[in-house]
Write a structure and sequence with these properties.
Blueprint (H helix, E strand, L loop, with lengths): L2 H31 L10 H30 L2 H24 L5 H30 L2
């Protein structure tokens, strides 16, 4: 395997482990609060854990393809580094949101900015590849 596929694969695994962790937090909060499925309301700690899980899932839809495209078309090393920043931002978001939802903004901003950089880089990389392919 080449670096181009190992680094985004490693970051993707870390992102999926993060998601599995926030899913586990939802299950623990559901048990502690005695909220039976399919209910998703009823106790603040459960609702916060559930929102973290849902928001992380929503962010993964943008993050994972942007990460892989950035790594493929621009730089696997830079893409992995930015992807790691996204993971740190999401961890910060999760911790802060569960403690106090008002404090979630820095973690959200770090994650969102990282994903946006990956997306913009992916667009630039794909357009550059199209340009180079068309000029030959």
């Amino acid at each position: 395997m080449v670096l181009q596929s190992i680094l985004p694969a490693f970051i993707t695994v870390l992102a999926l482990l993060l998601y599995a962790g926030v899913c586990g937090n939802v299950l623990r909060a559901r048990r502690r609060s005695r909220i039976r499925a399919p209910a998703v309301t009823g106790a603040d700690d459960f609702e916060r854990a559930f929102r973290v899980q849902q928001n992380t899932l929503e962010q993964l839809v943008l993050f994972v393809p942007a990460l892989w495209l950035f790594c493929f078309f621009l730089s696997p090393l830079w893409g992995a580094g930015i992807g790691l920043v996204w993971i740190v931002g999401r961890i910060l978001y999760a911790i802060c949101y569960v403690r106090d939802p008002e404090s979630r903004i820095p973690g959200f901003a770090i994650g969102w900015a990282s994903a946006l950089i990956l997306l913009i880089g992916a667009v630039v990389g794909v357009l550059r590849a199209l340009w180079l392919t068309g000029s030959t």
